[in-house]
Amino acid sequence: MTDSSLPPDPRVAVVTGAGSGIGRAVARLMLADGYRVALAGRREAQLLETADGHPDALAVPCDVTAPDDVARLFAEVRQRWGRVDVLFNNAGVFGPAGDVGEISVDEWEATLRVNVTGSMLCAAEAVRAMKAQMPQGGRIINNGSISAHSPRPRSVAYTVTKHAMTGLTKSIELDGRAFGITCGQIDIGNTRTEIMDTIGVGSGAMQADGSRKVEPMFPVDDAARAVLLMANMPASASVGSLVVTAAGMPFVGRG
After folding, report:
1. What pLDDT shows up at residue 250?
2. Catalytic one among 81, 88, 158, 218?
3. Residue 162 near residue 147 (C-beta atoms within 8 A)
4. Around Cβ 94, how many Cβ atoms within 10 Å?
5. What whole-number distance in Å separates Cα of residue 196 and Cα of residue 205?
6. 12-245 architecture in CATH?
7. What is the Cα–Cα distance from 235 to 195, expressed in whole angstroms?
């Protein structure tokens, strides 16, 4: 006898921001683990590079800040595979460098549109899909940041969005209980991706005392393995919060 509460294999995942960095690493690892994976991002060429011809990859160009794009993404996934088991809500930007008195309203709103509204839109479509496939439900994993716990200097827009992500995660987890939907957040610090160059981690990132310090980084594939761990938990368990950082990075005690 089969357990009707368990999703059929292979499971179906949607990964946003799949054209580079953590999203690319997670998408490729999920494909290697037997998932069918929808790769979402703004640039189709990068998505196709991530897919690398894999038969279980579906590249869908998508701007997560556009409701119609997000609705189309999930409609294509359900039309192709009939369900959504996992959403890795990963698309994000670092935003402007500056304190609250230095950044512009346009920069602030642009960062919130991607990191908060985009994440909400994707989660909303995932929740609708997962409610429709009860009793199996599904799982959402939000990519936060260690800035959801402790900010870097001159990163007010990014820091606020990552604190907001924590509220989104907890609300989805609470409201999803009746539908078999779980939601957790992974907060990653100093994995070796393009954004680390933006903030100077490898050449000297600004510290709380105004100095600059070269900080350790760790391979992006290790971060992807942590995401896969969360995704592969049984339906009876949920990782609500997971922090993974480069060993020795100035996070504990930052500031």
Report:
1. 86
2. 158
3. yes
4. 19
5. 9
6. 3-Layer(aba) Sandwich (3.40)
7. 33
pLDDT of residue 87: 98
Angle between helices 156-176 and 119-132 (to 10 degrees): 10
Q: Is 158 a catalytic residue?
A: yes
Model confidence over 87-102: pLDDT tens digits?
999 999 999 999 999 9
Query: Domain-by-domain residue ranges, the chain?
Result: 12-245
Picking from 136, 132, 41, the residue whose alpha carbon sits closest to that of residue 88 is: 41
* Alpha helix stretches (DSSP H) within the chain: 21-32, 44-51, 67-81, 105-112, 119-132, 156-176, 194-198, 220-231
**Considering the entire predicted model, what is its pTM?**
0.92
Region at 204 (left for phi over 0; alpha for psi -120 to 50; beta for the rest): left
Q: Tokens at residue 229, please?
A: 């761990």
pLDDT score for 180: 96
Cα distance between residue 251 and residue 150, in whole Å: 7
